[in-house]
Specification:
Shape: globular
Number of domains: 1
Strand order of the largest sheet: 1-2
Strand content: 5-15%
Largest sheet: 2 strands, antiparallel
Length: 223
């Protein structure tokens, strides 16, 4: 059971990104075929792919933290002794965690009212939830129709009325979701640094690897 839960948390981004890419391909391909051969098209196709692309980009941020894919400058880290290197990594990941909390607060506050939920209080860090707020669950997107199997949301967010278009709470959900995943991944990095399994946030050297593949000498080997 624990292995299954660990596998799920390890593959959250991969599964969502694969699903999003598949949906984008299917929607775009269907639109091309409809326009080419039937002089028609999916009116909601463009808006859907725009939302899906936003999901792809935002989820990609936490995915790259997990895979050490973000760009990093490690010139000082390479010449620092091991204890100082660990301290620098802990400081850097602490800054990233604080930044992720700020992003999560902003993301929640933007999305919450569209889901009939309260925003947080506090200017920078969350200190609680607002007691009164303006519910915006009735806000819909421009073109994407509301699937029938999701109409139960009308009773939750729209006072029992059916939606004609998809409520904005659904596509905007990626904001708090992606920022929560980003915070989760940085907490994982912090734990690995603390336990000594990792001595920096970014452990990849993609440019150096590409230079080696191209036949050029690696920067660190030539130094």
């Amino acid at each position: 059971m624990k292995d299954a839960a660990r596998s799920f948390t390890d593959r959250i981004e991969e599964n969502l990104i694969a699903l999003i890419l598949g949906l984008m391909v299917v929607i775009t391909f269907a639109n091309v075929i409809l326009r080419k051969f039937f002089a028609s098209g999916l009116l909601w196709g463009l808006e859907a792919t725009v939302f899906l692309f936003a999901w792809l980009v935002l989820l990609g941020a936490s995915y790259l933290v997990k895979t050490n894919g973000h760009l990093g400058v490690d010139a000082l880290i390479e010449i620092a002794p091991s204890p100082l290197r660990r301290a620098m990594a802990l400081f850097a990941v602490a800054v990233c965690i604080v930044f992720s909390v700020l992003l999560l607060k902003g993301a929640w506050d933007y999305w919450a009212n569209f889901a009939n939920l309260p925003q947080t209080t506090g200017r920078m860090l969350p200190t609680g939830f607002e007691e009164s707020f303006r519910a915006k669950g009735w806000y819909e997107v421009d073109d994407i129709p509301m699937p029938g199997w999701l109409q139960w949301l009308g009773g939750v967010l729209n006072g029992g009325e059916r939606y004609e278009k998809m409520p904005r709470a659904i596509p905007y959900l990626v904001l708090p979701l992606s920022m929560a995943l980003l915070l989760f991944r940085y907490l994982q990095v912090a734990w690995r640094v603390w336990t000594g399994d990792q001595d920096r946030i970014v452990a990849s050297h993609e440019v150096e690897d590409e230079l080696i593949e191209a036949g050029a000498p690696a920067g660190r080997e030539g130094a």
